[in-house]
């Protein structure tokens, strides 16, 4: 389908522009700062968040006269959200004492925790500076609120570390703040920049938020039954850090006192194979997967506010892909 | 002097308003986040940065019709700079593995490094959010640029850790970015908000920057010859972290190869008393003090753009106090 190809070509071109915008925003007159910024660019993966911004923008502007200035604003927003995401990765690696990211050594390992903390701060600051160049004051306020929520979500999660009685409502509150809010902002703010009505922008924000939560649940499932776990090597890093994932939360809520004690012993013994069998026995793994599937269906339903277009179709595909991936 | 008293009363009232603004901006719907925010409020010391904002604002507005809306904007800016300063304190404590601040245990000790990193991020984000509520888009841009410089300064300092050949120019570049830029922003941005011309605002920014650098040099001097060092207990924390302070930088540049080797041995042995004698022998301690004094004189000279007022007099007193303090 040449039509499909053109969309992918456009998106790839725009993502290239976003990468340039990202790099330019981090250029500094100090060599040690530039060296770190170059290292961080290697962290860039599939650019999921910029893709959400650009695709939402395209879907909203379907049928409108094209505008270079709006395209540039959307490119800047895409670079801003990627920078915020990257600052959380750099600080997460410090927290998790991670030594590898995307096949390369992490900053904390290469240059020490101090530099990694400062680099994360540098990225947050640069993202706010870049954001203020868009020339839409409401965007600064919205992004400030969003990152505040993101940090609050992390703090909430840390306060529940190792809490065996974490309930589903709190789990979802954490995940919404930590993952949902950023993906929701990508779509909601892109829609507003692109000229969508408040109702349409809110629907797209909810699309992003539900997609983000589904994405996290899939991460949780893979943390338990991902390839590395299936071959019995390691228990998921989340579990080892005392972060309870949805399958475990649902399982602990469903099981008897005896099964509960057994589960805790198995977690402490880091026995992934037995843990998977236990979590499957109460149907908790299936329930978690089902919950992610429902969220994706909800998210896709939110797209009904948009007219039919290739960009809208791509948003559907992104939602489906969130729970179909195995890595 | 009742006139003097009135200025102090006004300032104290305004600082009280700033504290309320600060607290309100950190209120969150999550209990664990509020608990941390309350802890951070205990870090609040003399509120030097808010005092610079408010006093500069008062000095600029001397003789003008009073404006509640401008006063509120200045209060918000004062809370914003205090929040940025506090976020740097929280992250510095993680970097320095500090266990005490203002007589209480640090967040990193009480709640772990993870929570401290996240709390710092929460404070940065909240400061940007609060800043966007002032309703002056240029302020978002200026603060984004300022915090980016601040982080760049920290990264530059980390890249020179333990560098025995650190030259004076690089030392001043680090200190300007780390300390000067924030104090400069307090005065320059407050002046602009208060309605000063670009020339007056720039003079006041330079006043703040020079004051900030002098303040840091005095810290450096106290790190070496402060009361705790004089009684021979500990060598300054900066030196132990491989951060070279101005007296040491000047001393190493002045001394012979033999004295240099001796100095390094004395630093490694953490012998504060001998180090002080060595640094005094080359006149480096006197030179550092003299440099701080010159900066304070320069800073005071910048105030000539302001008409005579009690607020201007207070800015003179703040500058003098920066190098007269012994703690």
Short description:
The structure is a homodimer of 327-residue chains. Helices cover 78% and strands 1% of the residues of chain A.
Q: What does this entry look like structurally?
A:
Two copies of one chain form a homodimer. Chain A has 16 helices and two strands. A two-stranded antiparallel sheet of chain A has the order 1-2. Chain A is globular, with a radius of gyration of 20 Å. The first copy, chain A, has one domain: Farnesyl Diphosphate Synthase. The first copy, chain A, has 327 residues and is an all-alpha fold. In chain A, strand 1 and strand 2 form a beta hairpin. The two termini of chain A are 28 Å apart. At the A-B interface, helix 2, helix 4, helix 6 and helix 7 of A face helix 2, helix 4, helix 6 and helix 7 of B.
The biggest beta sheet of chain A is recorded as: 2 strands, antiparallel
In total, the number of domains of chain A comes to 1
Radius of gyration of chain A (Å): 20 Å
Annotated CATH homologous superfamily of chain A? Farnesyl Diphosphate Synthase
Q: Which strand order does the major sheet of chain A show? A: 1-2
Alpha carbon gap, first and last residue of chain A = 28 Å
